[in-house]
Amino acid sequence: MTGCACVSAASSSLSSIGRSRIRRRGPAAGRGALVGTSPASGFAFGRGESMGASVRISVEGQARSRPKREGRALKVVCIDYPRPELENTVNFLEAAQLSASFRSAARPAKPLKVVIAGAGLAGLSTAKYLADAGHQPLLLEARDVLGGKVAAWKDADGDWYETGLHIFFGAYPNVQNLFGELGIEDRLQWKEHSMIFAMPNKPGEFSRFDFPEVLPAPFNGILAILRNNEMLTWPEKIKFAIGLLPAMLGGQAYVEAQDSFTVQEWMRKQGVPDRVTKEVFIAMSKALNFVNPDELSMQVILIALNRFLQEKHGSKMAFLDGNPPERLCMPIVDHIRSLGGEVRLNSRIRRIELNADGTVKSFILNDGDVIGGDAFVFATPVDILKLLLPESWKEIPYFKKLEKLVGVPVINIHIWFDRKLNNTYDHLLFSRSPLLSVYADMSVTCKEYYSPNQSMLELVFAPAEEWISRSDEEIIDATMKELSKLFPDEIAADQSKAKILKYHVVKTPRSVYKTVPDCEPCRPLQKSPIQGFYLAGDYTKQKYLASMEGAILSGKLCAQAIVKDYEPLIARIPKQFAEASIS
């Protein structure tokens, strides 16, 4: 999720484009004061643009006077749980071994200069592991903010707002290894091992799936499902379990073969009642990929269930303790720089310049700079890559298959209220709303965003295809109507109860790739057929699909491919010098 695997799910690609602005209403209302920037280790996070496109970001809101956060003492009272024991799982050990392979690799006689486009998690990961292997990455980011789909900005009050609601699962072995390698494991705030769903037919009430700590997987997950009698009846549980048997027995080969079915089609084929889909898998589908079960590939659900049921702590969730650019991305940048690598912001690529043989000669930036290298990586979202593909590459099957991979729109909303809301948890919550996916009271779940007196709800608005072009006011009005059902005693659509102090609406027209059926064959390997040109991104071939884990793993696999290609890449250098001298 990007927030929940994608919530983060997943998120900034063709998203955060243009200037980030906040609209203020009232007697002194203006058409929008520009959000102030805040420097951090040489980087400023204030407004953002995406590489290679001209789609506008909408980050406007309404605001009442509110004290600035500078100098405010934080008294953190949210209750976190100990970090789970993840180190002995097969997937964690496999990820650790891959990380170690870069550090233990033979030092290159001549380090490769590898130019990487895109400083999201995939690009940062690629650069980090290439630096670990002794090479010299140059990471170029089009915008003035790190993170890609986990980008965030600070507004004039000193409050952060993000591209998505990001959740870190125990089943993310490469993410967990990365935190350990950087020495920042303490920046994850682990929550109790539960999944909490709102009850639409009982406004203000929730239903829980609690995973007992004393049981190993898969028994802790099975018991969590069996003990919940509010969402599914016993006959429905039995039919669902029988329907899942082929996936449990058939392994990965069976899971991949289900890519041709939507979640809804697969459930009906297996004899699972539609109510199971309605009660559980609408929420899961929207959390995993921002779409409904009638569109999502069943492969996505089966992969998630496999990770959650096969690992004791797989479904356990953690929140980052602050904004992602500073708390996650900057430590990666610091690590890259400490090993001789370089990271540049405001470096938008205008064109990929080719040699006579069709290989990459250089990246041409918008400001006219020409960036050459020994190898080149595109770690941007797939939609941006397709915009910048050279014409001579477009009919190559490897690139032509990318046409089916299209980013899904999503909207992330932050609302600051004038009071502390009571009907919430220190956890991620599945709204089960037709308009909202997941949400959290970030004033409770996140240390940096903590407030003792006011709640700040961060919500994922999905599916967003019909809403992405609507005004922020329409989106907030619709959100408030949904929140009045989740908080019937505290929130009213007309604000006669809790009042909105301000809000931010972040629209991402093209987020993670939309995992509809039959996308799997179109996902490319990290090594392209063009010598010296590679791809990284959650849409590339790796087993964690569209997620933060998928992005980081794709970067490691990309770096691995480049390290393996060292000899043929280094052999190209004299030829490139010869061509340069002739021209």
TrEMBL record:
<dbReference type="InterPro" id="IPR002937">
    <property type="entry name" value="Amino_oxidase"/>
</dbReference>
<feature type="domain" description="Amine oxidase">
    <location>
        <begin position="121"/>
        <end position="562"/>
    </location>
</feature>
<keyword id="KW-0472">Membrane</keyword>
<keyword id="KW-0560">Oxidoreductase</keyword>
<comment type="subunit">
    <text>Homotetramer.</text>
</comment>
<dbReference type="GO" id="GO:0016117">
    <property type="term" value="P:carotenoid biosynthetic process"/>
</dbReference>
<dbReference type="GO" id="GO:0016166">
    <property type="term" value="F:phytoene dehydrogenase activity"/>
</dbReference>
<dbReference type="Pfam" id="PF01593">
    <property type="entry name" value="Amino_oxidase"/>
</dbReference>
<dbReference type="InterPro" id="IPR014102">
    <property type="entry name" value="Phytoene_desaturase"/>
</dbReference>
<keyword id="KW-0125">Carotenoid biosynthesis</keyword>
<protein>
    <recommendedName>
        <fullName>Phytoene dehydrogenase</fullName>
        <ecNumber>1.3.5.5</ecNumber>
    </recommendedName>
</protein>
<keyword id="KW-0150">Chloroplast</keyword>
<dbReference type="GO" id="GO:0009507">
    <property type="term" value="C:chloroplast"/>
</dbReference>
<keyword id="KW-0934">Plastid</keyword>
<comment type="pathway">
    <text>Carotenoid biosynthesis; lycopene biosynthesis.</text>
</comment>
<dbReference type="GO" id="GO:0016020">
    <property type="term" value="C:membrane"/>
</dbReference>
<keyword id="KW-0957">Chromoplast</keyword>
<dbReference type="GO" id="GO:0009509">
    <property type="term" value="C:chromoplast"/>
</dbReference>
<comment type="similarity">
    <text>Belongs to the carotenoid/retinoid oxidoreductase family.</text>
</comment>
<dbReference type="InterPro" id="IPR050464">
    <property type="entry name" value="Zeta_carotene_desat/Oxidored"/>
</dbReference>
<dbReference type="InterPro" id="IPR036188">
    <property type="entry name" value="FAD/NAD-bd_sf"/>
</dbReference>
